[in-house]
Specification:
Strand order of the largest sheet: 1-12-14-13-15-18-16-17
Helix content: 25-40%
Low-confidence stretches: 1-26, 576-581
Length: about 675
């Protein structure tokens, strides 16, 4: 069933975005092409398009802008069912429903009914559900081999409601056991890591509670800032007094005093408004991923009621004991039960890939070449942004208005040729790439043209910052034809190619390589503006973009004209999609577009342990060894428990059937 995505396909854009008439490429000067490329980037990266984030009106505006451009260039924009839009749904947060409740019941008949918003809050990254189970204090919910620390070691949490402290032990100590240094936070502090640990051990629900250290530390920091502000104000007042009636010193001294007094007022306001034990707002942490359990956040006061009644201690005392000993203090709260219910739903929004087709002519016309670039970005920040806390528009000029503009220019050039190409060319602007290659994953699930007759896929992601003439081309090893062809097409274009053989990597070409289609992915490199609000159109190298488009035009032309399909080569190496580190190598390719109970994969790396064991695209991993798997996070953490060379039983769902496979893990990939 087609999704109800808004389908106005007319003049919905502002006058400033009016389409220019399609003009032949022939005779266009380099300056004209560069102006055209930069104009397209400027439009897509304007504030009016709201960072092209999923769920924003700006993404829909970009979608229709691209559809209108494809149509104006003469492409067939009806192939997706009458318009250019291949529509589907993606998860875009969670919505709180009702009822939501939490009650604590003690061994002597105590019944403590808690108030939502005051005593507890439902967490958006949990699941809806009902629970009535014994309570276990689980410390920080950490399971670590290095350093050796395991909050689960001496307690049974199967079917229990667990209380979990946020963050990690020994935070106030330089060089503490989980000290990640000045540039990061230990992965053991992540909420989703703690959730995955508890889920895999069979917990019925989680009650998060703020660690006391953080509140004390924040209060002390604000108090110190207030002391410094008041001291500076006193010194400024003294300077005014000392200036007397001096016309040169007095104005500046008064200005400094006014600034100092404003700082005092601001810091006093921060001090008054500071909450030592805030509840997480619903929505913090995003929606659940895969299967989860009910998750709530309780106040320290509520937690201390439980700990005092069951253990005769407090959260502060347990925190201090863990810090002092460096050992867990997990304990069952004998006789106490938590009874509650969470009600929430995952919010879905309609999105669309934008598709324009240039049909081929001749004996190879039914074979397809795909040329793609993703047009979505991060909207107003949040998950994925490298500017934490920023709510500014993340315009994404390089990532990936640049690739999208280059896609339009290529479409213009091929459509303007007097002869049709020997093979069908499909120009596709993908959506949802920043959420996990969602648009390309959707296309390979429901291809508009058969994948078996799709001979190549060319992708552009971040091609707007060419520097020192260096262009990285991923996928150069995915066909025996590519290396020589790439070098030939680069001649005379002042491009220094950096060839990377791997076909799997962090962009949309991966979805096609997983289906054994040769790929090439063009990329000019990251920079300090990557995934930040400062990725603006003024920083784009339009001349570099033009040369890249010239280069890819030749590659596509040669591929379309060659009577032989490019051969496919299976490459074991892969550019990291998500996680890295010291876990063994498994070789699965995540399917981020599937919302399911388990870890869905869209494919496996050729020759990888997963491939050799018989896993394949469409499988859903639900168990690894003895660990139940509800999501990719669960799989990632469970995999770290094993060693290279170890044989592990993997249970997958395939066509509704549970299948056991034996995987021999390999050494970590660098």
């Amino acid at each position: 069933m087609r999704l109800p995505v808004h389908r106005m396909f007319g003049s919905l854009l502002a006058v400033s975005l009016t389409l220019e008439a399609a003009v032949p490429l022939w005779g266009a000067s380099a300056e004209e092409v560069e102006t055209r490329l930069l104009d397209a980037v400027r439009i897509l990266a304007s504030d009016e398009f709201e960072g092209r984030g999923v769920g924003t009106a700006g993404l829909v505006k970009a979608q229709h802008y691209l559809g209108e451009q494809f149509a104006a260039l003469g492409l067939n924009t009806t192939i997706a069912g009458g318009d250019p839009f291949q529509t589907f749904e993606v998860i875009d947060g969670a919505e709180l429903q009702s009822p939501n409740s939490l009650e604590l019941r003690g061994p002597a008949g105590e019944r403590i009914a808690l108030e939502m918003g005051k005593d507890f809050q439902v967490c958006s990254f949990g699941d809806a559900g009902v629970f009535d189970a014994p309570v276990v204090f689980l410390g920080y919910g950490i399971e670590s081999q290095d350093p050796p620390y395991n909050d689960f070691a001496d307690v049974d949490v199967q079917g229990k409601v667990v209380i979990v402290l946020r963050r990690t032990p020994q935070q106030g100590r330089e060089g503490g056991m989980f000290d990640a240094g000045p540039h990061g936070t230990s992965r053991h502090a992540a909420l989703r890591t703690k959730v995955s640990n508890a889920f895999r051990h069979g917990a019925a629900a989680i009650l998060f509670v703020n660690d006391p250290f953080t509140g004390r530390h924040e209060a002390a920091r604000i108090a110190e800032q207030l002391r410094e502000a008041r001291e500076a104000a006193a010194q400024a007042a003294q300077s005014v007094a000392e200036a007397g009636d001096d016309p040169e010193r007095l104005p500046q001294a008064r200005e400094q005093l006014a600034l100092a007094q404003r700082r005092v007022e601001q810091t006093e306001r921060v001090s008054r408004e500071h909450v030592a034990d805030p509840l997480m707002e619903f929505g913090y942490g995003g929606p659940r991923s895969g299967k989860s359990i009910p998750i709530l956040h309780i106040t320290q006061r509520v937690c201390n009621q439980l700990l005092g009644g069951a253990l005769g201690t407090s959260l502060e005392e347990l925190e201090a004991a863990i810090d002092e000993t460096g050992r867990p203090h997990s304990r069952a709260l004998t006789g106490w039960r938590a009874v509650g219910q969470t009600s929430l739903t995952v919010k879905r929004v309609g999105v669309a890939n934008v598709v324009g087709v240039l049909e081929g002519e001749g004996p190879l016309k039914d074979e397809t070449i795909l040329i793609g670039a993703h047009y979505d970005h991060l909207g107003f920040g949040g998950d994925g942004s490298l500017a934490p806390g920023s709510h500014e528009v993340h315009n994404g000029a390089d990532d990936n208005a640049s690739g999208t503009a280059a896609l339009l220019e290529l479409a213009r050039r091929f459509a303007a040729r007097p002869q049709k190409p020997p093979r069908r060319l499909v120009f596709i602007a993908f959506t949802g790439e920043e959420r996990g290659l969602l648009g390309s994953a959707q296309y390979v699930k429901e291809p508009l043209f058969p994948l078996e007759s799709t001979i190549a896929m060319f992708n552009m992601d971040m091609v707007g910052r060419l520097e020192d003439d260096k262009l990285t081309v991923f996928g150069s090893g995915t066909s025996p034809r590519w290396p020589a062809l790439l070098e030939q097409c680069a001649q005379g274009k002042q491009l220094q190619l950096i060839l990377k053989p791997e076909g799997f990597g962090p962009s949309d070409h991966s979805s096609f390589y997983a289906r054994e289609i040769p790929v090439l992915h063009l990329f000019t490199g990251t920079h300090n503006d990557y995934h930040r609000p400062t990725d603006d159109w003024e920083k784009i190298n339009a001349a570099g973009m033009r040369r890249i488009v010239d280069f890819l035009e030749e590659v596509v032309t040669a591929t379309a004209a060659n009577p032989e399909r490019p051969g496919y080569i299976a490459i074991q190496q892969h550019a990291t999609l998500t996680r890295s580190g010291n876990r063994p190598y498994f070789g699965s390719i995540p399917d981020f577009s599937t919302d399911t109970e388990g870890y869905a994969i869209q494919g496996v790396a050729p020759g990888s342990p997963a491939d050799l064991a018989g896993l394949r695209g469409g499988d859903i991993i639900v168990q690894l060894g003895e660990e139940q798997i509800g999501s990719l996070d669960d799989f990632d953490l469970a995999l770290r428990k094993f060693s290279p060379g170890q044989q592990v039983t993997v249970v997958v769902l395939r066509g509704g059937q549970r299948i056991k496979l034996q995987v021999v893990l390999a050494a970590p990939k660098s």
